[in-house]
Write a structure and sequence with these properties.
Two copies of one chain form a homodimer. Chain A contains six helices and two strands. By secondary structure, chain A is mostly helical. In chain A, strand 1 (30-31) and strand 2 (37-38) form a beta hairpin. The structure holds a DNA duplex.
DNA sequence: CTTGCTCCTGTAGTTACTACAGGTTCTAGC
DNA sequence: GCTAGAACCTGTAGTAACTACAGGAGCAAG
């Protein structure tokens, strides 16, 4: 499998695959006699794992830890669970934040009189925010 | 007001204030005779506006547009409303995505047997994801 | 044998900052 | 007047996770 095939198989950009190799989450693959990268099914599985973890919001350093854990099946599961737990907490706090943003944006839009900017609630809402406390 | 005062007044990092000047969202301020930046109340208001917009998830190019609109009060409100509307849509889609991530993470964690990695549902859940379609 | 595709390396650009190096200026205390 | 230490200045580089491009090589088809 050349890099283009792996890209099509996994939906991951070619440049991103090479980036993952530089970043140390994909091992340097074997090379064909002409110097081109040669991948196998294991690489596709690993890349699929990485892609899914990234889509779940794990950063590459967490992915590295998860991959290392995966390679020692006798190790404890707690590290993986802890990473997922902290990821869940981050997701919960992003959720709470986004919910309040949605409310504020909805309110801004519904209050916009569709008149002149001087009467526009959108800009006023943004300007008003500066006096409110923020955590 | 020197840059440090403005920073304390708005809660925006000094380096970030200088960055905003380079990025063209804060106008280059007057300088004291010693070359130091000198700000007024209008700058603090503008920076508060920028900060609030950034907290709402607007990127700097949207902030630039909103600021430009703000400066021509005779213009139509529709541009501002449209920016807020597209922002709302982005927030809604991020919300939907995060909600499903939360469910998947919760499930992963609750199914983790807290045994060996070989039985770990967290890693398995990530590996399994690769065969599922993603939009 | 030329066109065009895929691949290679290496570097620079992206966003929104943040951090540092190396230098100047101001302020307070002695 | 002198010195220590803030606070400020410019300019550059680092961050994450890519993305894009320059410039060159190999390969397959017509």
């Amino acid at each position: 499998m050349q890099i283009g095939d792996l890209s099509r198989a996994t939906g991951v950009n070619i440049e991103t695959i090479r980036y993952y190799e530089r970043a140390g989450v994909l091992p340097p693959p074997a090379r064909q006699s002409n110097g081109r990268r040669s991948y196998g099914a294991a690489d596709a599985r690993r890349l699929g794992f990485i892609r899914h973890a990234r889509e779940l919001g794990f950063d590459l350093s967490s992915v590295r830890v998860l991959l290392a854990l995966q390679e020692q099946p006798e190790a404890s599961c707690e590290d993986a669970s802890r990473i997922a737990q902290s990821q869940l907490e981050a997701v919960e706090s992003r959720l709470a934040r986004l919910l309040s943003l949605r409310d504020e944006l909805s309110r801004m839009i519904s209050e916009c009189g569709r008149g002149r900017v001087s009467e526009c609630r959108v800009i006023e809402a943004l300007a008003a925010g500066q006096t409110q406390p923020h955590g």
